[in-house]
Every structure is written in structure tokens, then in C-alpha cells.
Design brief:
Helix content: 25-40%
CATH topology: Aminopeptidase
Distance between the termini: 24 Å
Mean pLDDT: 88
Shape: globular
Order of helices and strands: EEHHEEEHEHEEH
CATH class: Alpha Beta
Low-confidence stretches: 197-202
């Protein structure tokens, strides 16, 4: 089993994955994934260039305190970059933020990587940043992401009607939220059931 010394700048470590800060060198892989994405339920419009990803990664570190923190999701052992998880719109006074996540390769989806990565991010949000609540928005046709959020402990908080125009029609956006106390209760229940390692709750 790899040790922390074999993982570059590891922030959070799970059973199969670890989180590290994004690097400018990650930009080409994110741009390539954007260009070859086949999932039609995602809410993006057009592929994003490598230069745009470089700019995003560079600018993210300039704000103090940061308004967004994004981690690379890497596979332990191989160090393969699988995707990213983020906490954005950070409100340091009220201690809330919006989470997001994504895997670059469609072949890695449905393998439990997304859940493990998200739980590592939530651990960082609630135990390291001491946030009191997080929320997440989902394009309504993206039923897979909505189901994943529910599995991770989020609850449906509301709906923005006709928030996105895609494929010739208006679509709603779903808003989910998760309180720190609810996440801690779910994690405690998972630990008691012997599911506390790896992907955690969900």
C-alpha cells in the first residue's frame, strides 16, 4: 500500500484515492476531457481550452482568503489524475460554500470513485474549514448527479424553474444542501455499520 511519501502533496487520503492541490500541469488533461465529454446531461455549453484551465488554476490561488478551493482527485499507487472536487463561493463569515465534483473519464464513473472523492472533500469542508453547511446545484436532467448527491447525504432544498436553456428547451436546476451535523450523524452511522473506510457514507 502506498504511503503518504509516495503521494504528491496529499491533503486528504482515502482507500483508493487522495486529494492534492491542482497544478498548472493538470490543465491539458482537463481540457482534453472537456473536448471529448460525451455526457449530454452536463450543464456546460462548449469545450474549454487548455489556456482557460491554466488561467483558472493560476487565479484560484491569488485570492486571500480564497473564494474557491479545488483539489485534484488522484488514484493511489498509480498517481493517475481522475478528476477534481471543489468548494466555491466560500462565505467565511457564515461558513457556507457550494460543492462540485467531476471525473474526467467516463470509464471511471460508476466505480465509486466519485463518492469517495466527495466524502474526502466533505471531510475537508467540515473538519478542516469548519464550515457549517454546504450546498450543490444540479442541472435537472442530470439525474445521475442528483442521485449521487442524495447518496452522499444531501437533501433537496429547492428548485430553480427554467434556469437553463439546452437542446431547444428550458430546464430546471435542483438545489441540494447538507448540514455539518447531518453529515457527522451519517458518518457515525456508517462507522458503526463498518462502512467508515474507503468511500465513507453512501
Amino acid at each position: 500500500m502506498p504511503t503518504l511519501l509516495t503521494m504528491r502533496n496529499a491533503i486528504k487520503v482515502g482507500t483508493r484515492l487522495y486529494l492534492r492541490p491542482l497544478e498548472v500541469e493538470d490543465a491539458p488533461l482537463f481540457a482534453r476531457a472537456s473536448a471529448f465529454e460525451t455526457e449530454t446531461a452536463h450543464d456546460f455549453r462548449v469545450p474549454t481550452s487548455e489556456l482557460a484551465f491554466v488561467h483558472w488554476i493560476t487565479e484560484m490561488s491569488r485570492a486571500h482568503p480564497p473564494t474557491e478551493i479545488t483539489f485534484a482527485v488522484c488514484e493511489r499507487g498509480s498517481d493517475r489524475l481522475l478528476g477534481g472536487v471543489t468548494i466555491r463561493h466560500l462565505d467565511w463569515v457564515n461558513r457556507v460554500g457550494e460543492t462540485g465534483s467531476g471525473l474526467l473519464d467516463a470509464a471511471d464513473r460508476g466505480q465509486g470513485y466519485g463518492s469517495e472523492a466527495k466524502h474526502l472533500l466533505l471531510d475537508y469542508c467540515f473538519n478542516d474549514l469548519h464550515l457549517h453547511a454546504v450546498n450543490a446545484g444540479v442541472f435537472a436532467p442530470n439525474t445521475r448527479s442528483a442521485a449521487a448527491l442524495r447518496k452522499q447525504g444531501y437533501r433537496l432544498a429547492g428548485r430553480l424553474r427554467w434556469d437553463e436553456f439546452k437542446d431547444g428547451a428550458w430546464h430546471d436546476a435542483l438545489i441540494f444542501d447538507l448540514l455539518r451535523e447531518d453529515w457527522l450523524a451519517l458518518r457515525s452511522a456508517a462507522d458503526q455499520a463498518g462502512e467508515g473506510d474507503g468511500e465513507g457514507i453512501g
